[in-house]
Specification:
The chain is an alpha+beta fold and 162 residues long. It has one domain: Sandwich (Immunoglobulin-like), CATH 2.60.40. The protein contains two helices and twelve strands. The strands form two sheets. Strands 4, 5, 6, 7, 9, 10, 11 and 12 form an eight-stranded antiparallel sheet that branches. Strands 1, 2, 3 and 8 form a four-stranded antiparallel sheet that branches. A hairpin with a 2-residue loop joins strand 9 and strand 10. The longest helix is centred in the N-terminal third of the chain and has 22 residues. The N and C termini lie far apart (78 Å). About 15% of the residues have low confidence.
């Protein structure tokens, strides 16, 4: 191969190889294939106030979802005077912290729903009017190792205190 072609083709081949790895490599195993979703805060007649419901699903098991410090920062429920952005720093500085669930839990069945609430089951719902939002800061510790910190938000919801 002529020297000039080698100068062009070798970097091109290396770039394509990197692109292939980025595009087709499996997801980072440190995440343990976990995802979370959080429903909008809502009034629960069973809890007698405002709650939020979160669901975690992991592909690799057993995996422990870490909500407690030092690994997580909890599954938190916030009340705000105005419609808040999905930004933890904004919530800390501009909203009122109403409830939290700091209980770690272990997922043992792959790709199954694992429901958690804030406030936790057995505790009364929160009270107050205005804009509500839930946020979970968590890590997944399983066969793929300990993940980085994930932050998962609900959408905000305007609620009139029950």
């Amino acid at each position: 191969m002529p020297r000039r072609m080698r100068k062009v083709l070798l970097p091109l081949a290396a770039a394509l190889a990197v692109a292939w790895v980025v595009t087709f490599a499996p997801a980072a195993q440190a995440d343990n294939g976990c995802v979370a979703s959080i429903q909008n805060p809502h009034i629960s007649s069973n809890a007698g106030g405002v709650i939020a419901k979160g669901n975690w699903v992991c592909a690799l098991v057993p995996t422990t979802i870490k909500l407690n410090n030092p690994y997580g920062a909890g599954f938190n429920l916030w009340a705000c005077a105005s419609n808040p952005p999905q930004d933890e720093n904004y919530l800390i500085n501009n909203c009122v912290w109403k409830a939290a669930n700091f209980t770690d839990f272990t997922i043992t069945v792959a790709n199954s729903d694992n429901i958690r609430y804030t406030p936790p089951l057995g505790q009364p719902g929160a009270h107050g009017g205005g804009w509500w939002i839930a946020c979970a800061q968590w890590r997944a510790n399983g066969p793929g190792g300990l993940s980085g910190l994930h932050t998962t938000f609900s959408n905000s919801a305007y609620i009139v205190d029950p």
